[in-house]
Fold this sequence. Notes:
Layout: H1 3-15, E1 19-25, E2 31-36, H2 45-61, E3 69-72, H3 77-88, E4 92-95, E5 108-109, E6 118-125, H4 129-140, E7 147-153, H5 158-164, E8 168-174, H6 175-184, H7 190-202, E9 203-205, E10 211-213, E11 216-218, H8 229-232, H9 239-251, E12 255-258, H10 264-274, E13 280-283, H11 293-306, E14 309-316, H12 320-328, E15 340-344, H13 350-356, E16 367-371, H14 383-395, E17 401-405, E18 418-421, E19 429-430, E20 436-437, H15 440-445, E21 451-454, H16 456-459, H17 464-483
Parallel strand pairs: 3-4, 3-6, 6-7, 7-8, 12-13, 12-21, 13-14, 14-15, 15-16, 16-17, 17-18, 18-21
Antiparallel strand pairs: 1-2, 4-5, 9-10, 10-11, 19-20
Helix pairs in contact: 1-2, 2-3, 6-7, 10-11, 12-13
Amino acid sequence: MDQTKLKELGIKLFEINAFKFGDFKMKVGINSPVYFDLRVIVSYPDVMNAVSDLLTEYIKLIKVDTGVHLCGVPYTALPVATLISIKADKPMLIRRKEAKTYGTKKLIEGKFNAGDKCLIIEDVVTSGSSILDTVNDLRAEGLIVTDAIVVVDREQGGSKNTEESGVKMHSLFTLSFLLNVLHEAGRIEESTVLAVSKYIKATQIRSDGSFMKNGTQVVNLLNRMGMTFEARVDLAKCALSKDLMKLIATKKTTLCLAADLTNSEEILNLVERVGPYICLLKTHIDIVEDFSENFVKSLQSLAKKHNFMIMEDRKFADIGNTVSLQYASGPFKISTWADLVTVHSLPGQGILKGLKSVLNDVTQERGAFLLAEMSSQGNLVTPQYTAATMKMATETDVDFVAGIVCQSPELVSFPGLLQLTPGVKIEEGIDSLGQKYDSPEHVVKVKGADICVVGRGILNAKNQTDTAKLYRDRLWTAYCERVGLNE
């Protein structure tokens, strides 16, 4: 590799502000004394040409399988990957950040067959998460991914993290190399080199979202499992989830009561007893045999009195036009009183658009929980379905999605979303109909629940009030232990 060309390019990147020094907040949630923004190179054709030339040469040098496709990580690496594709005469694939809602609805564009190899092209790597997101989508289509070529490795754990997922990372530049080049050229002081080098060594980011700081593992500030509800409020994109986080933090409860009773008076009496201890009341309104508008008004009155929200567990699962009618019309008129509803992602993005379409006539904030996993034994939810549900939750209509119904902590990585987990019971086990139950502590600290659904554990108790209080206390203690709060 021509070291002179590498050094010249490194200095040129500095001159065009493709990287700079200061105090910058990183995507992973920590501050850094150096920041790379290679997006600016699209305005400098000579730099684009130099980068693509050196990467093309580098690919040949390290002898990556010549039969591979190329795929640039969206979006900054796409123009670079395009130039390499032309210069190296390699077929290119394009990975969309979201699947099309029309036509073929593809996530990966281009001609390929299952079993083909694909080489990843990326601009800058810190933790390697963007590479791994692309790798996962390519592998889901049957492509084989074993290598990634990057322009700059910040040397903060990305190489190790990708290798753990079977992807070897090759970098044109390392941050250490660029520091030395700039220092030799008289562009930065030795003190800057030492300060940044110390930062690199002290702050290594792991694949689980935590980072090593001065030899000690620290929970990443953007790791949901380690954040308090107060810290997460400003990150939420759904206004109702902001309100719910504030409610939880103020009331100090993550308990959701599943009021699966068929008589309106029994439900109201139950809610009066346990209302002070819950953040959310989950209803199945279509099983209430004597449903009436007065019943709904009484529920709303209790919600205001005891400070909790109402979620209708409707599990909408039809096309947009149908669910808009189910939500706003019929005898229940759910949109007029339920703060939240549950939704299956099976029909695609149109189901969220259909639900949102009726909210112009609703003055209060509304939101939805998407079902990504289920707690029943032998359910048919697949990993692919779960992954597609998470894409729906984070890519469009994010102002309406308050959270995810699931059983796995790694699914809900974005701290602005709430994880709601059913199947909570002090006595663990499986009932006669295949419903699995876990202890409050297990659901919060192992499964990652932010809000925990308890039904029969309270409904069948001799003293429902004391039992609800017990669940509230055990769940809150588990949450405090999870985020490191001292009670």
